[in-house]
Specification:
Helix 5 packs across helix 9 and helix 11 packs parallel to helix 13 (378-395). The model has no long low-confidence stretch (mean pLDDT 96). The protein has helices at residues 4-11, 15-30, 49-61, 77-90, 106-117, 135-138, 160-166, 189-206, 267-280, 288-297, 305-321, 343-354, 378-395; strands spanning 36-37, 100-103, 124-128, 145-149, 171-176, 211-215, 238-243, 256-259, 333-337, 356-357, 359-360, 369-373. The protein is globular and about 60 Å long. The chain is an alpha/beta fold. The longest helix has 18 residues, at 189-206. The chain is 41% helix and 13% strand. The chain folds into two domains: 4-48 and 303-395, Alpha-Beta Complex (Aspartate Aminotransferase, domain 1); 49-297, Aspartate Aminotransferase, domain 2. The strands form three sheets. A seven-stranded mixed β-sheet has the order 2-8-7-6-5-3-4, with helices on both faces. Bound molecules: pyridoxal-5'-phosphate. The site of pyridoxal-5'-phosphate (PLP) has 13 residues, from helix 5. The site of pyridoxal-5'-phosphate has 13 residues, from helix 5.
């Protein structure tokens, strides 16, 4: 007999992984250029040159066995100091090394925070649709619940009335992911300020903190004039979860952090509980070599030209054909309306008829829409357009 909850997680089908696997099989039969895979959020631009140069330099110059040894549980002092200094430089925040807890990517950062904040089974985390499906796993890890705020279609900003109706006396945190997976939308500063003011009022009414968990792996992926608000600047009780998975194209290296700003209520206890939760899930001492790399590359910015070109080409071509979508300002996702109103059926038709792999919005809490991850080659986008044209002709209303 095994734990049924974990058995369920381990055997649950994942549409994204199934689409990806289907694409690999089809590519063997038809050739790679005949499959148009928009399923995975795997960065397609290389890590900045400094990343590989630093890896080489460290491996060649550091003779100490400690380069591959354990670090302290919260991470190397030097890495945490560099991250704190970078945050102070870029934002209005007084970050210090002892408020940074290094993690193996953003996922364990979020799970540790969820576990640290959950005190009783009624505790809930408010998430805003469309949202990253793994939130259902991450934010229930401590035994609490997830409550969903319905998506605000078609622009995918946050519907404040719906949020206000969802937060209750058992809400311990609101999770904000901006730029957003799957919509690519960046929430405006005004919206975030309004949420902050509302939560402050509810904290006073309920007599306990209601944190914002800022899930920020896409913080640096933003285009045009859009600005990503650093949420601790507008709301004191904000906990930041970050990773370099997308910003430096390092998802396989598993490196990120939690930042608990000094203005956070119970900040020291919270930091300690996050450290304890990370210990329970076995996510301590992230890869030492990569901690040393981010220490040196913390100021590197991604070169977004290729993503921006893809974003414009995809958005302009699809909307010209009659597809409806909110223009994404960040991340590398575009969220479009299913022309036939049924995201599951449209995804299946696109797959079987055109070898176009796009993810139904149902899993993101937003049926009727589909996610396209445009971290792909620009050529693939152009090659897929005749298929999109045939699909809207056949299924459009
Ligand atoms: N949060 C969101 C919104 C994501 O899209 C992802 C990954 O795709 C994560 C968290 C997890 O990031 P990481 O790969 O750094 O664990």
């Amino acid at each position: 007999m095994v734990n049924q909850k974990y058995y369920g997680y381990g055997t649950a089908p994942s549409i994204i992984r199934e689409l990806f696997a289907y694409g690999l099989e089809q590519a063997k039969v038809l050739g790679k250029d005949k499959v148009y895979d928009y399923s995975l959020g795997n960065p397609s631009i290389p890590a900045p040159a400094k990343v590989n140069e630093t890896i080489k330099k460290l491996v060649e110059e550091e003779s100490s066995i400690l380069l591959h040894g354990y670090s302290m549980a919260p991470g190397f002092e030097g890495a945490r100091e560099a991250i704190a200094a970078n945050l102070r430089e870029r934002f209005t925040t007084n970050a210090q090394a002892n408020q940074i807890f290094m993690t193996c990517g953003c996922a364990p950062a979020l799970v540790s925070v969820a576990c640290a904040l959950t005190v009783k089974p009624e505790d809930n985390f408010v998430v805003i649709a469309p949202y990253f499906p793994e939130y259902n796993v991450f934010f229930t890890a401590g035994g609490g619940k997830v409550k969903v705020v319905a998506a605000d279609v078609p622009d995918f900003q946050i519907n404040l009335e719906a949020l206000e109706a969802t937060v209750d006396e058992n809400s311990v945190a609101v999770v904000i992911n901006s730029p957003n997976n799957p919509s690519g939308v960046v929430y405006t500063k005004e919206t975030l300020e309004k949420i902050g003011a509302f939560l402050k009022q509810k904290e006073a009414e309920y007599g306990h903190p209601i944190y914002i968990v800022a899930d920020e792996p896409y913080r640096e992926l933003v285009y045009g004039d859009a600005k990503v608000t650093f949420i601790p600047e507008v709301y004191d009780n904000t906990i930041v979860c970050y990773s370099w998975s997308k910003s430096l194209s390092l998802p396989g290296e598993r490196i990120g952090y939690v930042y608990v700003p000094e203005k956070c209520e119970d900040g020291k206890a919270l930091y300690a509980a996050i450290a304890g939760a990370a210990r329970e899930i076995g996510s301590v001492c992230p890869p030492t070599l990569i901690q040393r790399v981010v220490q040196e590359c913390v100021g590197c910015a991604p070169d977004l030209v290729a993503y921006d070109e893809n974003r414009n080409d995809l958005y302009n071509s699809l909307t010209a054909m009659g597809y409806e979508c909110a223009k994404p300002d960040g991340a590398f996702y575009l969220f479009m309306k299913a022309p036939n109103g049924d995201d599951m059926a449209f995804s299946e038709a696109a797959k079987l008829e055109e070898n176009i792999l796009i993810v139904p919005g149902t899993g993101f809490g937003c049926p009727g829409y589909l996610r396209l991850a445009y971290c792909v080659s620009n050529q693939m986008i152009w090659n897929s357009m005749p298929g999109f044209k045939r699909l809207i002709k056949k299924y459009g209303k």
